[in-house]
Amino acid sequence: MRPTATHATAAGAVRPQPVLGTGPQRLEGREKVTGTARYATEQPHNPPDCAYAWPVPATVAAGRITGVDTSAALALPGTLAVLTPDDAPRVAEGDDPILTVLQDHEVPHRGWFVALAVADSLENARAAAAAVRVSYQARPADVELRADHPDAFVPDSANGHPGRRERGDAPEAYAAAPVRVETAYTIPPLHNHPMEPHSSYARWDGDHLTVYDSSQGAHWVRSALAKLFALAPEQITVVSEHVGGGFGSKGTPRPHVVLAAMAARHTGRPVKLALPRRQMAEVVGYRSPTLHTLKLGADRDGTLLSVEHEMTAQTSRIKDFVEHGAVAARVMYAVPHSLTTHRAVRLDVPSPSWMRAPGEAPSMYALESAMDELATELGMDPIELRLRNEPVTEPDSGLPFSSRHLTECLREGARRFGWHHRDPRPGVRREGDLLTGTGVAAATYPVLCDASSASATARPDGGYTVRVDATDIGTGARTVLAQVAADALGVPLDAVRIEIGSTRLPYGPLAGGSAGTASWGWAVHDACTALTSRLAGHRGPLPDGGLTAESDTTEAAGAKPAFARHAFGAHFAEVQVDTVSGEVRVRRLLGVYAAGRILNSRTARSQFIGGMTMGLGMALTEHSTADPVLGGFAERDLASYHVPAHADVPDIDAHWVDETDTHLGPLGAKGIGEIGITGTPAAVGNAVHHALGVRLRDLPLTPDKVL
Ligand code: MOS
């Protein structure tokens, strides 16, 4: 291949086959299935002096450490050190209180790390940790979330959303409404449980800290470590090249990375710290349990007159993280009177955090279940009820939608699902012990986009290198970004080499908020477009280092949008309920989405059905139990925390309507990582009601609740 000829193609001489919207396989697929993709604590492979760290979690529900006896642990073979609150390296106060570990004697919740054993092998570290004796002065712990808790408060902000929003007079409109539904739902604590537990490898070379961390954003980890260890960002390198899932729990840095860096500094050796799954429940975040009450008032023709949604969530004693689980009504339906309120209670519990579709997942479960109850009360088809209340502008802000197409999703879904053959009467489809039902729910998730930068280089060998600190947490981000680059450069996909997952690369934001592809992709698009222009103006062979163009979308992506921007969708479920065992099984699940331009049909489908599978788990099997006596959570492995397995997910299908939205970035893409979990639990719950004729309002719908 002659370099100049290839780069002439980039300038637009011959357009190759389109690469956006097609379904190329993951670029790193072969490495992943052959085990050569390196995850955080596999990379680099065990250097000869590598040490291993094992944390010691608090065993009381709340209290104070009165002493840490390390003598037995230090006497064991291979122990290098035991860090305690008395002698661990001091760190500065950062932005997140969960990261200031081993700095004082307070125990805000069970599972909080109170010591760290470091040894020459994993086995020795575990044995040393078990030999550490910690004494406590325990205090009574309050871990029970109740709506009538005397300490409940309405925060100004629930994760950046107004704590309370009021339009009109919803209570008055409700009192006067001809048709009224008042209902309540509960959602238990839920845990993210990615396949790859949180883990870090840390090494100091003089004053330079290198960390391989299983994270959704290397730059975020770097800024947190820089603050804590009082270093300039350039003194830290964070690598997150391959990440085995996160679902939000790796969206913010976690204490293990701080402990690994502390231990490496203290021992002068590289240190690996891979959290055992049984320690994760209390230190990597979880979705707060939420209690919901809703009141819907409507006219007899189904026109909504009022919506009230009040949600109560819990947070910890050390940090206010308030799940924004009442936001859906601000987006979904036209209604003149609306009141949405978030409440929170500080308890002796681990700090809750981000979990796939934070806010939207619980709020859509509650709202879409209540809409189904209203449809039943009205004797109206639940799809018709939603179509009847389609808004022209976003109800809360009054802004026009950049695009919506919920109607199209509901209609297309109904057609594909065979909704029109449905007998609306509940509890009538019986075969032997089995009752069958179908349900529908709408889905939504906001379009988020963050500033990013990227660089694109035309190499003298005829290929291209694109660099951006994006993170591929299993989504296919690496592949999609290579597609974006190939498209902007006008070259085939295999001409692009993509480098992601390191702070050595141009700044990229988190893989979070379903914003990754749109954010990094915008910067990649801009860098490649700029490179194309540079190449067009370039004469003769390329210099040795090639030609490079850089981009930064700070200004463009940061502009305040004049439109309400959300993805929408419709979920359909068919369930069978065994009236003898109480087991609910999903037979069919369908999602139809309007999510802007779909850039990779293969990985997009995976994201959609992955979200729906997680929604199925939220509906039927997943829950964590706060232990009222011991504190923390009772479920601490995948044998007790039931994520859906293959046999639980028989027939699951995802489609999308063609949507062109010119009010997004240059890719026209909305996020797709989270919308699948919003609406799915309500669709399943509504199907269970249709099957049984009985409304169950406390997730998950396990056999004990069905019987
Ligand atoms: Mo996701 S919960 O926005 O990482």
From TrEMBL:
Superkingdom classification of source: Bacteria
Record keyword Oxidoreductase present: yes
Origin species: Streptomyces solincola
Keyword Coiled coil included in the entry's annotation: no
Key words of the record: Molybdenum, Oxidoreductase
Protein name, per record: Xanthine dehydrogenase
InterPro entries: Ald_Oxase/Xan_DH_a/b (IPR000674), Ald_Oxase/Xan_DH_a/b_sf (IPR036856), Ald_Oxase/xanthine_DH-like (IPR016208), AldOxase/xan_DH_MoCoBD1 (IPR008274), AldOxase/xan_DH_MoCoBD2 (IPR046867), AldOxase/xan_DH_Mopterin-bd_sf (IPR037165)
Alphabetized GO MF terms: iron ion binding; oxidoreductase activity
Any one Pfam family match given in the protein's UniProt record, by short name: Ald_Xan_dh_C
Domain spans labelled Aldehyde oxidase/xanthine dehydrogenase a/b hammerhead: 34-140
Segments of this protein annotated with the region Disordered: 1-26, 150-169
